[in-house]
Specification:
six-stranded mixed beta sheet
Amino acid sequence: MREQLTDLRSTRNPKARIKIMEGHFATVNSHINTYIDMSTVKCRHNNGRETARVLAEHFRNNTMVDTIVCLDGTEVIGAFMAEFLSDRGIMSINSGNNISIITPDVNAYGQLVFMDSTIRMIKNMQALVLAASVTTGRTIAQAAEAVSYYGGTVGGVAAIFSNVEQTPEEMEIFSIFHKEDLPDYQAYQPSECPMCRRKQPLDAIVNSFGYSKL
């Protein structure tokens, strides 16, 4: 595997940038031919803030947000989004709101759950689901199901990169980077992966924390 990461910057804000690397990678739900590295925007406060600014702009005037449900280690971006959405100095329907930032846990059956201490931040609340990378939309759908189970409502979905425009339940996903920004990006069901059929070895297992070479 040739470890060569290439920068990809947002046209809306160049500080909102990701890195990409080509190869044969396995996620929990699919096989992909491009690894998308989010460490810059998730770990560096300046890049995280500017990424949050772009995302918050989309929801500022049209989406009530009581809670941001953070997936894929996006808590830093979620906190900055809450700052922008609740800013009293700008026109926003969330101006002055004390927005909660929470992360679901995963139970033994692979379901997303919320701890008793955070259920009050979901029940009867308007939630925005925030993800780093969306390949199929299934994890977003799981998060929305968990929010609904605990008595909340999902009013919006945001992602840094999304390969799809909607979840399987037809919820719109607003993302900074789209499939058009990565025209060679492909995601396959493991049983239908052409790289596997060509007996091309997997380069790495990837998840929200990064990649692990095989």
